[in-house]
Write a structure and sequence with these properties.
single chain; 554 residues; alpha+beta; D-Maltodextrin-Binding Protein, domain 2; Dipeptide-binding Protein, domain 3; 3 domains; seven-stranded mixed sheet; six-stranded antiparallel sheet; globular
Length: 554
């Protein structure tokens, strides 16, 4: 099914700073009229926080197979961001009912949704018209189990073919079983204790600093993490640019921490610490770790109540800034410090830690606009120091982890990004591949999701313009066959792949790219909805939105 092609462009234009279709003056939420002229009729206005907080000035489709992005400031990591699964492309017609994408996603990927049996499993069926190599297995099944031991039991019993996050004490058990194979993951992650610094008592820096001083991070790693894990001294893992091996944010000093709390809160201090009981590579044993943190903080005069929330509810609450004190973590989506720093502490970050800090915003914005690694490193050193000064979180551990498979699985791999590709794995003579992960997805429109369990399923169904190599971190072509930028890294041009069709039979072209990006970018677009409507990744990685909520609500 081919749609009528419309040459279009999205532009942030004029003092009103609404997105316009060039030559029409129509709001971004309206569909461009047939025959709309290509090109920019007005230059983009950037830096207007009232109307465009993002780093995106315009998107143009000069022909059906070309898309051009214009940025407000250089972004050396732009291809890595475009490759991320939060920016997958869906058919433009699907946004006529964007909420349906949450449960019934339509993409171009090697698998398409067969059935989502809530609380049980998700069944994916091979896409017979896939543009790339056909999946090795006709059916991929996603199941979930919060307990690592139970995941391993399923693998040993043969009801699972692969499992995520082998338990801390089970590495040797897997390695000693000739019927299984263990594949470690590089620890590109961070587990941290987060504070909303706008909410009492964590608006008091004394409380935040005392927790940093009073937490024995090495004790947690020694007791609750597998081999390859390290106690954190900073937010970034060691494999990323910006990690400073000489930097230590807090030296363990429980006596000093106890004295600080005793002086500031002579009657004692009671707090609630929220978490989800879902094992991740950065936190393999959530409740045992929480219990140990509770005991450690009791020794410095802080009485902690542990609040375990359902996984999706917990993430929604964290992203909405509703949790004063929480345990959370992060695994790399792409191998650049912007993925860790900008997402959490940049100008477009969610209110997880409160309203944020202007000095950190400035440093991170400048660092993300540079190409020289030495200049970037110096700025990230400043970011480390500012985080230790403001203390929106205490980094705890970089967790080693691993995935396990039956010995006969062809194409078995782990990904440092946690995006294992089901299409390249299978067992000879077996028509389905069963993967057991930690939890059930919240939704399958991943423009509006942040949880790894959702993202991994989405990655089998839909595709972005670019992708990451299987089992690695290099950016590779996907729906765009090639791309280039100007020297300033502000104009990025993508040349789209010919002959690609969506699962609904419609043909892929630049219209689908514009609409997929438009809906996420413009907070005033009535189609800017998903499971929550927050579009956290967009705001964090691109600096904000067009018509941010304060404007959209006026």
């Amino acid at each position: 099914m081919r749609r009528h092609w419309r040459k279009t462009a999205l532009v942030v234009a004029g003092a009103a700073a609404i997105a316009t279709v060039a030559g029409t003056g129509a709001a971004a939420s309206s569909v461009p009229p047939a025959g709309a002229a290509a090109g920019y009729d007005e230059r983009a206005t950037c830096g207007d926080d009232a109307a465009n907080t993002s780093n995106l000035a315009a998107i143009e489709a000069p022909d059906p197979m070309t898309v051009v992005f214009e940025l407000c400031a250089p972004d050396v990591a732009f291809p890595s961001k475009v490759a991320f699964s939060a920016f997958q492309i869906h058919p433009s017609e699907a946004f006529d009912d964007p909420e349906a994408l949450v449960n019934e996603p339509i993409g171009t990927g090697p698998y398409m949704l067969g059935a989502w049996e809530r609380g049980s499993q998700i069944v994916l069926e091979a896409n017979p018209d896939y543009w790339g190599d056909a999946p090795l297995t006709d059916t991929a099944v996603f199941q979930w189990q919060t307990e690592a031991a139970q995941r391993l039991v399923q693998l040993e019993a043969g009801t699972a073919d692969g499992i995520d996050n082998v338990g801390t004490d089970d590495f040797e058990r897997v390695e000693s079983n000739p019927d299984l194979q263990l594949i470690p993951r590089e620890p590109l992650n961070i587990f941290y204790l987060g504070f909303n610094v706008d909410l009492a008592p964590f608006d008091d820096p004394v409380v935040r600093e005392a927790i940093g001083l009073g937490l024995d991070r090495q004790r947690l790693v020694d007791n609750f993490y597998p081999g390859g894990s390290v106690a954190a001294t900073q937010f970034l893992p060691s494999a990323l640019l910006g990690y400073d091996e000489s930097f230590v944010d807090f030296e363990y000093d429980p006596d000093a921490a106890a004295a600080m709390i005793a002086e500031a809160y002579p009657d004692g201090l009671e707090v609630t610490m929220s978490l989800r009981d879902v094992a991740r590579s950065y936190l393999p044993q959530p409740v045992p770790v929480a219990t140990d943190i509770q005991a450690q903080l009791a020794e410095i005069g802080i009485d902690v109540t542990i609040d375990v929330q359902e996984s999706t509810t917990f993430l929604d609450n964290a992203n909405a800034g509703l949790l004063p004190f929480h345990m959370l973590g992060w695994g790399a989506d792409y191998p650049d410090p912007t993925n860790f720093f900008d997402f959490h502490f940049g100008s477009g970050a969610s209110p997880q830690f409160g309203t944020g800090f202007g000095d950190i915003h400035e440093v991170l914005t400048e660092a993300g606009s540079l190409t020289d690694p030495d200049e970037r490193f110096a700025l990230y050193q400043q970011a480390n120091e500012l985080l230790a000064e403001h203390i929106p979180m205490v980094p705890v551990a970089h967790g080693g982890s691993g995935v396990a498979y039956k010995a006969g699985v062809e194409g078995a791999h782990s990904s440092p990004l946690g995006n294992e590709a089901m299409a390249v794995m299978g067992i000879e003579g077996q028509d389905q591949f069963v993967w057991v992960q930690n939890g059930e997805p919240g939704g399958l429109y991943c423009g509006d999701e942040t949880d790894g369990e959702s993202l991994r399923v989405c990655e089998q169904i839909a595709e972005p313009l670019l992708g990451y190599e299987i089992g690695g971190t290099d950016v590779v072509p996907a729906l765009a066959e090639s791309w280039e930028s100007n020297e300033e890294l502000t104009i990025w041009t993508f040349h789209l792949r010919e002959g690609v069709t969506f699962h609904d039979g419609s043909e892929f072209d630049a219209t689908d790219v514009l609409e997929s990006y438009r809906v996420a970018w413009d907070a005033a677009d009535p189609r800017h909805v998903g499971r929550t409507g927050d579009f956290v990744y967009w705001g964090a990685l691109f600096g904000g939105h067009l018509n941010p909520p304060a404007v959209a609500e006026e």
